[in-house]
């Protein structure tokens, strides 16, 4: 094939961020304040600190208020939950993001479950998961939401498409499958115990790979004309002369690009969509909390 269309997640995310920023002044005029996102970081994991920093920056760049809260690595469960309770009660805060993972002595699920579902911009509370499963309006995890946007942008109506999601994590795979089902796809959920994964992927019009294994999905698994969304972010061991190894996805990109209709690159595909969708979720949460219709 001449090669797949390369889905430009970076450009799409920039457009989404701009649309969020454009909606802020009207919200402010109606409500008397800008939407606000609170990010909570417990401990000093360097990667988490970087994520929290870029989320704060993106929030401010969209014209929204950013509230950053840091707790020490030895914070107790009660201290974490007390902070979340304060943020639940704070009217300036429309979205609450608890940066994961928490230090090992803390109960992550229990802490997440205390977040007000109407402020759960990560979509990780049991209530948010339940709303998604029941098809009730709620907040949806950012990464799969971004994947769905890219798919709809490429394909339009997804009705009747055969979709496979490889990976069933709470953060990505499971909500992705729910979203595709909600969009009327016929959905296969694959995981580490799946038999004949290659054969199942070969049937699919839509392939979403969220596994965390470098280049596991091969080109000869891809049905010609399929759309491939690669969520994986894996760093290879450095080759000779490289300081750090290359980033690759869960899909063997060059092979798959030779047969697919369209494919997301790594980096520059799904990755940039996550923060853009976090801003979008914060804007949506703010509108719903204020009793306004969802922004366009
Ligand atoms: P998890 O490790 O939580 O889940 C991985 C899933 O892959 C599990 O369901 C597991 O199955 C399945 N799996 C593992 N090995 C195989 C195999 N050989 N065949 C089929 N399935 C397999 O990962 P996440 O969902 O959190 O993340 C997946 C990838 O996406 C990672 O590379 C991560 O870095 C990336 N990511 C990127 C984001 C972004 O772009 N912004 C955001 C979040 C994640 P089982 O359940 O049976 O163990």
TrEMBL record:
Single Gene Ontology MF annotation: methylenetetrahydrofolate dehydrogenase (NADP+) activity
Cross-referenced Pfam families: THF_DHG_CYH, THF_DHG_CYH_C
CDD domains hit by this protein: NAD_bind_m-THF_DH_Cyclohyd
Domain of life of the source: Bacteria
Residues of the Tetrahydrofolate dehydrogenase/cyclohydrolase catalytic domain: 7-122
Residue ranges annotated for the Tetrahydrofolate dehydrogenase/cyclohydrolase NAD(P)-binding domain, each copy included: 141-289
EC number(s) per entry: 1.5.1.5, 3.5.4.9
Matches recorded under InterPro entries: Aminoacid_DH-like_N_sf (IPR046346), NAD(P)-bd_dom_sf (IPR036291), THF_DH/CycHdrlase (IPR000672), THF_DH/CycHdrlase_cat_dom (IPR020630), THF_DH/CycHdrlase_CS (IPR020867), THF_DH/CycHdrlase_NAD-bd_dom (IPR020631)
Signal peptide extent: none
Keywords linked to the UniProt accession: Amino-acid biosynthesis, Histidine biosynthesis, Hydrolase, Methionine biosynthesis, Multifunctional enzyme, NADP, One-carbon metabolism, Oxidoreductase, Purine biosynthesis
GO cellular component terms given for this protein: cytosol
Single biological process term from Gene Ontology: methionine biosynthetic process
Residue numbers binding NADP(+): 167-169, 233
Pathway in which the depicted protein is active: One-carbon metabolism; tetrahydrofolate interconversion
Swiss-Prot/TrEMBL catalytic activity: (6R)-5,10-methylene-5,6,7,8-tetrahydrofolate + NADP(+) = (6R)-5,10-methenyltetrahydrofolate + NADPH; (6R)-5,10-methenyltetrahydrofolate + H2O = (6R)-10-formyltetrahydrofolate + H(+)
Subunit structure: Homodimer.
Family designation: Belongs to the tetrahydrofolate dehydrogenase/cyclohydrolase family.
HAMAP family xref list: THF_DHG_CYH
NCBIfam families: PRK14186.1, PRK14188.1
Free-text function comment from the UniProt entry: Catalyzes the oxidation of 5,10-methylenetetrahydrofolate to 5,10-methenyltetrahydrofolate and then the hydrolysis of 5,10-methenyltetrahydrofolate to 10-formyltetrahydrofolate.
Name assigned to this protein: Bifunctional protein FolD
Organism of origin: Sphingopyxis indica
Lineage: Bacteria, Pseudomonadati, Pseudomonadota, Alphaproteobacteria, Sphingomonadales
């Amino acid at each position: 094939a001449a090669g797949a269309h390369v889905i430009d997640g970076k450009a799409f995310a920039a457009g989404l961020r701009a649309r969020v920023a454009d909606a802020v002044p009207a919200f402010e005029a109606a409500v008397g304040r800008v939407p606000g996102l609170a990010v909570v970081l417990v401990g000093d994991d360097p990667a988490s600190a970087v994520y929290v920093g870029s989320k704060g920056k993106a929030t401010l760049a969209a014209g929204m208020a950013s509230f950053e809260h840091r707790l020490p690595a030895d914070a107790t469960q009660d201290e974490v939950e007390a902070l979340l309770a304060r943020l639940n009660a704070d009217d300036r805060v429309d979205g609450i993001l608890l940066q994961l993972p928490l230090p090992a002595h803390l109960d992550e699920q229990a802490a997440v479950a205390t977040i007000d579902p109407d402020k759960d911009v990560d979509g990780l509370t049991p209530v948010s998961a339940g709303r998604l499963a029941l098809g009730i309006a709620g907040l949806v995890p950012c990464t799969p939401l971004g994947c769905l946007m890219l798919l709809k942008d490429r394909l339009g109506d997804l009705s009747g498409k055969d979709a496979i999601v490889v990976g069933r994590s709470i953060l990505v795979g499971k909500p992705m499958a729910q979203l595709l089902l909600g969009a009327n796809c016929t959905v296969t959920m694959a995981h580490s115990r799946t038999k004949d994964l290659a054969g199942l992927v070969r049937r699919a019009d839509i392939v979403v790979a969220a596994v965390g294994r470098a280049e596991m999905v091969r080109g000869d698994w891809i049905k010609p004309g399929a759309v491939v969304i690669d969520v994986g972010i894996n760093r290879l061991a450095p080759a000779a002369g490289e300081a750090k190894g290359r980033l690759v996805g869960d899909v063997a990109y060059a092979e798959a690009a030779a047969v697919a209709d369209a494919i997301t690159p790594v980096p520059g595909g799904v990755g940039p969509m996550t923060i853009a969708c976090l801003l979008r979720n914060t804007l949506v949460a703010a509108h719903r909390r204020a009793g306004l219709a969802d922004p366009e």
